UniProtKB/TrEMBL annotation:
Subunit annotation: At low DSF concentrations, interacts with RpfF.
UniProt xrefs under Pfam families: HATPase_c (PF02518), HisKA (PF00512), Hpt (PF01627), Response_reg (PF00072)
Natural source organism: Vibrio pectenicida
Residues recorded with modification 4-aspartylphosphate: D477, D620
Ranges where the Response regulatory domain occurs: 423-542, 571-687
InterPro entries xref list: CheY-like_superfamily, HATPase_C_sf, HATPase_dom, His_kinase_dom, HisK_dim/P_dom, HisK_dim/P_sf, HPT_dom_sf, Sig_transdc_His_kin-like_C
Designated name of the protein: Sensory/regulatory protein RpfC
A single cellular component GO annotation: plasma membrane
Compartmental location: Cell membrane
Length: 907
């Protein structure tokens, strides 16, 4: 089009008020995208700003989508138009059918109207004047027509790329949504499971017990599905992180045994572990995820196997000094798989076929999760299967090897040599178990024979005696046809100079243990048996001294301590108001050689952080004076504190709480009650090695003395002692101290909560209930923690309907306090051996302690020794007074108690 034509059109436009630039047919979303881009480019060419061009194009796109939602297609035209003597861009949409919802775009357009004709057709007109009133469009008409009518392939390709990117973002958003929802669902599910378990411990009728048991089982099944969804969503969102912490391989297998044995027993299946003794045991990696893979594959094997056995085998693929690749195989004698089933086996939300889902259930997520976890461990996973004969699921994984593993292997070899040449008999009707145990004992250089039943075993033992080549050891299975292992053992034990007998059973029931004891059986092993457990039992039964393996529990602590070598002495600020939580955290931090300083609230934490130089801050959230979130915000406002790692410690571990922590500037979070492996993993992740202090003096963990190891707790109703001990790395002295501290600090808690409720002091009541919830959870007092949570929420929401809950709180709290009272004395008294009473020694030691107390010093070891000497020679309440004084560092009170006790001794 030449200039003359354009001028004529502009002259005509001046008369009519508009000139048409282009017209399009809109049929789908891509055509709207194309049109939107054209409008945006036109606006930019007409001197609209980039922001206003985008706003205009977006509004046009919304209008088009609105029209398209009511009809199959419509026409749209663009004009240069004049309105009120001002030129601008005009948009005209025409639709023959459909309806137009109410639209209001006055905030974008200078003129906007929708007209509906009698035939129900619609015409929409929108006008936007040029931002520059001096912009005259006559010289732009030809150019714009060419641009607007060009093929928009480039724009479409760019939009497709954007769409692909948005699809990826949508996938991530889906993963985030699933992860968030999983967390939200798990919280009430944990309550359902926990409370149903508590109900099962109460007096119930048989029908009630059956109903609650089914609720508990269904809850656990649902929680397993939720956990699978959580894991697959983490994987899809790219948020699955692997730990890298020291662990013991045999501990993973011990945990696996605990989880799967009962299910196998219920189906009459035998689970067999094949773990060669030469395997490295002290590894570095993610034990939780390794256990998850093994548990999933073993559970599948049990689910799809009706008879036979499940073999879990580990072999060493490749090993260097610093790392090892292990191969794990889970072999079953189940239904097997067809080749076409194997092809889709590792796809998420997929199972072998629909009949499998109907018969066996499941989400189809487990194997997909396993595959992703294996890949994160630099390994591969595959399956070998014969239909109707069984399957083998095999995977490899890489792990680090602890420096002490070479020493550990040397110690194990030294122990094996003590068994060299010993003649032993393996008795088992299961060929797989028989062969594996024979192979294992052969590796210890024993001379091994096998028998398939009790009768054959008796004959072989008698024959060996007659040939003057008797067996020294018999490894006897319990459940065998015709004659069980206990009966066979009883007969063998009647012979002259019988061999030592170790009974192996998949059923660790009390009656079996009792029968074995009555039959004078020398040792007892619960299947599946690991190599280390078998060696230890054989050595013990044969009276061989065992050189302590550095991978024992004590040396596991040393290995953990060694993993903190690069950050030894790093200063850590613990901001926590709860005394029980302080005691736990201090012990856990100091046990790995970190330098701990404590602040009792957020304000104190801020002051100390600004005054000192810390490597990391562990911050509780709910505290008096200033909470953890506010403290974090205050610190982040300081330029010197913006890079300091702050880790939130919270019992509220839901996603919104984590988001609040992140918004306040915190780097990470740790859920309460504190899980030691999570704590140590986060510390190693965030502490910069530059904070290592070579001058920091702290003794590495030593083996606990016999007194501490032998501290036996009575049964404590309301307290899960085993879980409580696990929170403090099985430190019985520390746990006893925590119990006493809890008792001392919660004598008035019930009345305090009553007062807060009556006075409507809801904020203080919420803090008190929150503190009680956290402290009781740390001890393993689940019922009390749950009730405290109910009150925390009631104070938070100011809920008036809690009248029936007061009795529950009183009962739960009183039960825990009475249980703690069963322990009796304070830890220093109960854990120190009683010593012979010598008045002169007591007086001399008292004088030494007096000098220390007068200087304000508390040598707790000296005081503990004194109490051990005078225990039984003074009144118990006098000892209690002294312990209380020492506990709160009251030197005056301690001196007075000391004088009172000495007077009674000398009087």
């Amino acid at each position: 089009m030449n200039l003359e034509t354009v001028i004529k059109e502009m002259e005509q436009a001046s008369k009519e008020g508009s000139i048409k630039l282009a017209e399009y047919s809109i049929e789908d979303s891509p055509s709207i995208v194309d049109f939107r881009n054209k409008v945006k480019r036109l606006a930019l060419d007409c001197q609209f700003s980039r922001v206003n061009s985008v706003r205009l194009a977006t509004a046009v796109s919304e209008v088009c989508h609105n029209f398209l939602s009511t009809c199959d297609s419509f026409n749209v035209a663009l004009f240069f138009s004049r309105n009120a003597d001002l030129w601008g861009i005009e948009l005209e949409l025409n639709s023959a059918v459909g309806s137009v919802t109410s639209m209001n775009y006055d905030y974008i357009f200078d003129y906007f109207t929708v007209e509906t004709a009698s035939n129900h057709s619609h015409k929409l007109t929108a006008f936007k004047r040029f931002p520059n009133p001096n912009f005259y469009p006559k010289e732009h008409v030809d150019i714009q027509r060419n641009k607007l009518n060009q093929l928009s392939q480039q724009e479409l390709m760019r939009e497709l790329e954007i769409s692909l990117e948005k699809t990826k973002e949508a996938d991530v958003a889906k993963g985030d949504f699933l992860a968030n929802m999983s967390h939200e669902i798990r919280t009430p599910m944990n309550a359902v499971i926990g409370l149903s378990e508590l109900v099962l411990k109460t007096q119930l009728t048989s029908k009630q017990h059956d109903y609650i048991s089914k609720i508990n089982s269904a809850g656990r099944a649902l929680l397993g599905i939720i956990n699978d969804i959580l894991d697959i969503s983490k994987i899809e969102a790219g948020k699955m992180e692997m730990e890298s912490i020291p662990f013991q391989l045999d501990k993973v297998f011990d945990d696996l045994c605990t989880i799967i044995t009962l299910k196998a027993q219920e189906k009459g299946l035998e689970v067999i572990f094949s773990t060669p003794p030469e395997l490295p045991n002290s590894l570095v990696g993610d034990p939780l995820r390794l256990g998850q893979i093994l548990t999933n594959l073993c559970n599948n094997a049990i689910k799809f196997t009706e008879q036979g056995d499940i073999i879990v085998k580990v072999t060493n693929c490749e090993q260097l000094n610093e790392w090892v690749k292990l191969k794990f195989e889970i072999k079953d004698t189940g239904i097997g798989l067809k080749p076409e089933q194997i092809q889709k086996l590792f796809s998420a939300f997929s199972q072998a076929d629909t009949s499998t889902t109907r018969k066996y259930g499941g989400t189809g997520l487990g194997l997909s999760i396993c595959q992703n976890l294996v890949h994160l461990m630099n390994g591969d996973i595959w399956v070998e299967s014969v239909y109707q004969e069984g399957s083998s699921f095999i995977f490899t994984a890489e792990f680090g090897v602890l420096d002490k593993e070479i020493e550990n292997q040397q110690e194990r070899v030294y122990n094996w040599k003590k068994l060299k040449g010993m003649k032993a008999l393996v008795v088992d009707d299961n060929k797989s178990a028989r062969d594996i145990n024979q192979e294992l004992l052969n590796s210890y250089s024993l001379e091994i024979s096998t028998a398939v039943n009790g009768f054959e075993a008796i004959d072989m033992v008698k024959k060996a005696m007659a040939e003057d080549s008797p067996y020294e050891l018999v490894l006897m299975d319990w459940q065998m046809p015709e004659m069980n292992g206990i009966k066979a053992s009883e007969i063998i034990k009647t012979l002259d100079c019988p061999p030592k007998i170790i009974l192996m059973t998949a059923y660790g029931r009390e009656e079996v243990v009792l029968q074995a004891s009555e039959a004078k059986i020398d040792g007892f092993l619960v299947k599946p048996v690991s190599a280390s457990a078998l060696l230890d039992t054989v050595m013990e039964v044969m009276g061989k001294a065992v050189v302590s393996d550095s991978s024992s529990q004590n040396n596991e602590s040393e290995a953990l301590y060694d993993s903190f070598a690069t950050v030894r002495g790093a200063p850590v600020l613990l901001v926590e108001d709860n005394e029980v939580n302080q005691i736990i955290a201090i012990e856990l931090l100091e046990s790995v050689g970190l330098n701990v300083e404590v602040a009792n609230n957020g304000k104190e934490g801020v002051d100390k952080a600004l005054d000192g130089k810390f490597a990391i801050i562990l911050m509780d959230l709910q505290m008096p004076v200033m909470d953890g979130l506010e403290a974090a915000r205050v610190l982040r406002e300081q330029p010197t504190q913006r890079e300091l790692p702050i880790i939130a410690m919270t019992a509220n571990a839901m996603q919104q709480d984590r988001e609040r922590c992140a918004e306040a500037g915190m780097n990470d979070h740790i859920a309460k009650p504190i899980d030691t492996s999570e704590l140590y993993s986060k510390l190693l992740k965030w502490i910069d090695p530059k904070f290592k202090d070579d001058n920091f003096e702290f003794a590495s963990p030593q083996q606990s003395d016999d007194v501490a190891d032998n501290v036996a707790f009575p049964e404590l109703p309301g307290i899960d002692v085993e879980e409580g001990l696990s929170r403090v790395n099985d430190d019985r002295i520390l746990f006893t101290k925590l119990l006493n501290s809890f008792s001392k600090n919660n004598q008035s808690t019930f009345s305090d909560l009553k007062t807060s409720w009556a006075d409507k002091d809801y904020s203080q009541g919420e803090i008190t209930a929150h503190t009680l919830k956290g402290a009781s959870a740390s001890l393993g007092a689940h019922r009390l923690s749950q009730v405290a949570f109910t009150f925390e929420q009631a104070f938070k929401l100011q809920d008036q309907d809690i009248s029936e809950s007061w009795n529950e709180l009183s009962s739960a709290l009183q039960q825990v306090l009475e249980s703690i009272a069963l322990i009796g004395l304070q830890p220093e008294v109960s854990l120190v051996q009683a010593q012979e009473f010598d008045c002169k020694v007591v007086i001399a030691l008292s004088a030494e302690i007096r000098e220390q107390l007068e200087l304000g010093e508390f040598e707790e070891d000296s005081i503990a020794n004194l109490i051990a000497m005078i225990q039984g020679h003074v009144k118990a309440d006098q000892i209690d007074r002294l312990n209380d004084a020492v506990e709160i560092y009251d030197s005056d009170e301690a001196l007075e108690c000391l004088d009172t006790m000495l007077s009674s001794l000398q009087g």
